[in-house]
Design goal:
With 194 residues, the protein is of the alpha/beta class. It has one domain: Rossmann fold. The protein has helices at 16-30, 53-57, 66-74, 92-100, 102-105, 128-141, 172-193; strands spanning 3-8, 34-39, 78-84, 114-121, 145-146, 158-161. The N and C termini lie close together (6 Å). Bound molecules: flavin mononucleotide. Flavin mononucleotide is lined by residues 10, 12, 15-17, 84-88, 120-122, 125-127, 162-164.
């Protein structure tokens, strides 16, 4: 059975991003994946300090929750990364996660993992495509296999409209694209690793 990890980059537990990443993971389970949700708002991750120790040892010199997350990522075949739009980009929590993933890139431990993005903006403000692009670039630099939400909508991945009141629960396109992304990541992971 393939393992798909969902990462939520919002500091707000139970918010729009968590809702959509959970939708993607539910859909992954429906087609046969084992899943796990990691909420960056509930873990302790310090920023990268550019000590470059990982370049020599392959391991991060900082002892926090990123160590456990790194081990989980090494053992997964699929990855769904979700972030709210903050000033047209990913959240600080997501950027810390990205930078601290550098030890995984030493010998490309995420090479060929099937991966995609979910982003949620506030009502009408926009920025979802920029966030999906930032996540896609992160994944490409890890040599992951980047996918979108696939047919029938086939765009950037999961793209939602939320806001502080959690309107994503009424966002039909956000829910559909997130579910389609979960299914697509899983089906491709099964073809490669199942
Ligand atoms: C600091 C900050 C910056 C934001 N910048 C944007 C933005 O540039 N574009 C946008 O559409 N929404 C922006 N938002 C709104 C959030 O993206 C939106 O409320 C989102 O649904 C929050 O997701 P969450 O419920 O998972 O936390 C911003 C919110 C905050 C707190």
């Amino acid at each position: 059975m393939v393992k798909i990890i969902g990462i939520v980059g919002s500091p707000r537990a139970g918010g729009n991003t968590e809702f959509l990443v959970k939708k993607a993971l539910e859909s992954a389970q429906e087609v046969g994946a084992e899943t796990e949700l990691i909420n960056l708002g509930s873990v302790d991750i310090e920023p990268c300090i550019a000590c470059d120790i990982c370049k020599g040892t392959g391991e991060c010199a900082i002892y926090d929750d990123m160590r456990d997350i790194t081990e989980k990522l090494k053992k997964s075949q699929g990855l769904i990364i979700g972030s709210p739009v903050y000033f047209g980009n990913v959240t600080s929590q997501m950027k810390m996660f990205m930078d601290r993933s550098r030890p995984l890139r030493g010998d490309f431990k995420l090479r060929n993992i099937i991966a995609g993005a979910i982003s949620v903006g506030g009502s009408r403000n926009g920025g979802q495509e920029t966030v999906c692009s930032a996540i896609h670039e992160f994944l490409l630099i890890h040599d992951a296999i980047v996918v979108g939400d696939g047919a029938p909508l086939a765009h950037y991945g999961g793209t939602g409209v939320g806001g502080p009141k959690g309107d994503t629960k009424k966002d039909i396109v956000g829910i559909e694209t997130s579910k389609n992304l979960g299914k697509r990541v899983t089906e491709l992971a099964q073809r490669l690793y199942g």
